[in-house]
Amino acid sequence: EAFESLLRFAENRTSSLFETAYRPMAKEAAEPVKELFTDLSLYILGAETTVESAVLRFFDSLFPLVYSRLINPGITDLSEDYTECLRLTRQDINPFGHYSKNMVTELSKSLWASRMLSQALSLGIEVINSTEHAALSKECSRALVRMQYCPHCQGLTLIRPCVGYCLNVMRGCLASVAELDAQWREFISTLEYLTNEMAASHELETALAGIWSSINEAILHAQLNGPQLSATVDKVCGQPKQQEGNLSSASIVPVKEVTGTQTFVMAHTSLNNRRREFISYMKRSRTFYASIAERLCDGDLVMRDSSTCWNGEDVV
C-alpha cells in the first residue's frame, strides 16, 4: 500500500510536469507516463521485467512527441511509419543525452531493494501459511491424548500436565516445525538488511521523487540540440510534411519544483514509519519457531504453581 501510494504520487507529479511546462504534448504524453509507472509497479511486485526496459520504452515513446511538438512544431502528418522510425532512431542518436541512462541507474538501485523486500514478504507469508495447519503424526496424537485426557479416567478432571511433560510432548509433535528455526532467523536478518538498504543509499522515495526532474532535464537537452537532431532524423527517416512557413521551435520553458512537496513528505514519512514498525515487530519474532513449544506450554495448559501435576502416568 505504501509502495503504491508513492508510485501514484510520483506519477501525478510527472503528469503535472507535462501539463505545466510542455502543454503541447501533455495529452499525448499521458499514456507513456501511465505505462512507465505501471511497469515500475509490476517490477516491484516481482514481474518478469526490468527497470531499464521500462525506462527506455518510455523514452522511445517520448521522442516522437518531443520531436514533433517541441523541436519541429510545424509537423502536420505524423504517420505510424514515421513515428516508428523516430522511436527506433532514438536508440541510435540518443537525443536525451545521459539523463535517460542516469534515470535507469538511480531507479534500478532503489527499486531492486523494494522488489526484493516485496518478494521476501510474499515468501514469508507462504511459509507461515504452510505451517499453520501442520499435520500431526499418530504418535503425536496419542501423546496429546495421554497428556490431556488420561487423568480423566482416574476422575482427575482438574489436574493439569506438568511443565516438563508438556514440553516433551509439544517438542516431539512440533519437531518438523522447529526445524524452520535457522531459516526463519536468516529470513528475519534478510528483511532487516533489505529495509536498511531501502532507507539508505537505495531510498525508494528519493528515486521516485526525482523522476520528473530527470525527464525534464532530458527534454531540455533534446530541445537544446534540436537542429542537430533534425538534421540526423531527416537523413534517416526523411522529411515529414510541414505547415507553410514552418513554425519556430517551441521555446524552452524552465521548470521549477512541481508542487506537491507536502504530499510527498507525508507519503515518505508513512513508508519510513511502516518500515521501522514492521522490522521492529519481525525482530521480536526471531525465536518464534524455536520457542513454539514453550509458548504452547505456557499459561492455563499446564500446572505451574502447585506441587501436584500429571506426568503421563500418574499424579506427582
UniProtKB/TrEMBL annotation:
The keyword RNA-binding does not apply. It comes from the Eukaryota. InterPro entries: Glypican, Glypican_CS. Its main location: membrane. GO terms for cellular component: cell surface; extracellular region; plasma membrane; side of membrane. Cell surface proteoglycan. This is GPC5 protein. It comes from Spizella passerina (Chipping sparrow). The gene is Gpc5.
